[in-house]
Specification:
The structure holds two protein chains of two kinds. By secondary structure, chain A is an alpha/beta fold. Chain A has nine helices and ten strands. In chain A, a hairpin with a 2-residue loop joins β3 and β4. The radius of gyration of chain B is 23 Å and the shape is globular. The relative contact order of chain B is 0.11. Classes of the chains: A alpha/beta, B alpha/beta. Chain A: This is Septin.
Chain lengths: 414, 330
Amino acid sequence: QDKNIRPLNLAGHVGFDSLPDQLVNKSICQGFCFNILCIGETGIGKSTLMDTLFNTNFENFESSHFEPQVKLRAQTYDLQESNVRLRLTVVNTVGFGDQMNKQESYQPVVDYIDRQFESYLQEELKIKRSLHNYHDSRVHACLYFISPSGHSLKSLDLVTMKKLDSKVNIIPVIAKADTISKSELHKFKIKIMSELVSNGVQIYQFPIDDETVAKVNTSMNGHLPFAVVGSTEEVMVGNKMVKARQYPWGIVQVENESHCDFMKLREMLICVNMEDLREQTHTRHYELYRRCKLEEMGFKDTDPECKPVSLQETYEAKRQEFLLELQRREDEMRQMFVQRVKEKEAELKDAERELQSRFEQLKRLHADEKATLEDKKKALEEDQVSFGKRRAAAQLLQGQSLTANGKKDKDRKK
Amino acid sequence: MVAPTVGPVYGEKPSSVVDFSYVGIDAILEQMRRKAMKQGFELNIMVVGQSGLGKSTLMNTLFKSKVSRKYVQATAQEKIPKTIEIKSISHDIEEKGVRMKLTVIDTPGFGDQINNENCWQPIMRFINDQYEAYLQEEININRKKRIPDSRVHCCIYFIPPTGHCLRPLDVEFMRRLSKVVNIVPVIAKADTLTLEERDFFKQKIREDLRANGIDVYPQKEFDEDQEDRMINEKIREMIPFAVVGSDQEYQVNGRRLLGRKTKWGTIEVENIAHCEFAYLRDLLIRTHMQNIKDITSTIHYEMYRVRRLNENNTGAVHTNGLSDHSAHEM
């Protein structure tokens, strides 16, 4: 095969410039999938922000502050805008930051993300698989809600983000940003970013390698974390109804860029980088998970002598091992079964013998009784015979005496 | 659920009116397009047919440039090889910002020997080797970000214009290969047939294909919905395309057109009244290219993968996935 690729000039219009359109059309038919994970304390405004972001009401209900453990609640929605269908899954943490002991708070989140990777990996490793139909539930973006204290990050925030930065694209946002003044906000943002850097937390950077979006992405990277305000209520400002929060001292407009960074978040998350978020999740985070998982299971690309080992061979070897183990267990079970059967058989034999002896015993008793009865019967018969004899004798005697008497009478009468 | 009004596409927001109900979900189409343009596309086409049927010329006509191997490899004389060889050449082409890596795989020697039994084997082996390479890369622990796709997306099979029906070689080859790759049959050098002869020939070919259970592209079972079926039925009624290739331009009615000049007239290649080259080009490039690639990756490749992963559990297997059983089948 010729490995050199020749550059070629086309002498006319061939027509493959329609390829991107063909690709886009196919994607429109298939629909898109996007999964957002929102991590933040109870009451910090996660659900409200999601409602505002997607211009809809996601049927949320307030969570209590007394959850014993952090839980995750995932809800899936089908949205449509012009001809694009989006299957959106919003995952919220429930009870995050409410416990007395928050040491294990991050674990349910990590477990959830890993579970989604695991089910994708399972599908990918199947023999008969349907990847193009598979509903991708892997988390594409993680919005981490920072409390607007104005000082710095909490240690819970740092610990959680550090655990998640190699598993998901983290986009930190400052929630309820209307409680911080502009100057405080600026200092707060700088403090947060420097803390993240000094603790080695890798948050998601908007991609700057594509010239079309490099400029806007670079400037947005400088505005992180976004200070957002969410609201689904509308207030009359000027002559329009806008989404806002009304206070006695003024109105905070959600979609006003000078009031908060909501529009920036929406643009970055949805309009400009949604595809990149999905791609990073697949090519970076998922691949890392897959590599770790397979290595954990004992698969390698090269064996100790550094010769390439095919996954197939390792898989075969493991399969043989597994089959041998199965065989061993089967043999064990069979032996146990045989053992039990023998025991039962012995038991039954004992019972049988016992029954047999009892039967013999009863038979003997019966025979004895029968013998006794026979004797008695014989005695009775003898008695009967002698009685019969005596009766006959008596009758004879009586008859003789009668005739003798009759003769006497006859004689007298004469 | 939201029912937003049709919002402006990203990049075209009018400055005075801001649509508050616009979320921006449809901007993902633009993002996808950008990503596709940046990554570029790959296409691998195989041409199969006896020598002298005009395969190289047709490729040159399709891609309006000298993609044929003859212009790349300086061979002193074009000799018919003693066995079938598989030669693939890659090209980097670009049109309106869309970059494509086109690989044309040539099969000189096919059907040229006296004894052509099993002449499809090297080709099957090649196709399976490409699937195998992709599979190996896919099951690696450390795998590349983008797995290089050398799988054969489409195989153009050249039928000589006898005018009667398919020959046993054609039937055998297409029967076996339609199971592993998308086959597009074409009638080569169609300028030797009149229109009536052509229609009769095409009908006969379609009957032969049906009688032998050969499913050529677009396959009936992969039609996704009603719309697809309608479009594909029209195409299926025209298969195989009767094509004429040429890379020479002639003056016809004041315009310069690709064609073949003869004493009795000039055959215009891109004129649908003369031959069906334009339909073939539209099918392969302008409308169905993505679909061809999708069918290769989601159906043919997956079938190969299932077979291969199951084979390892049962019988001995050669490294290219042709087990002892299937070698006999073939």
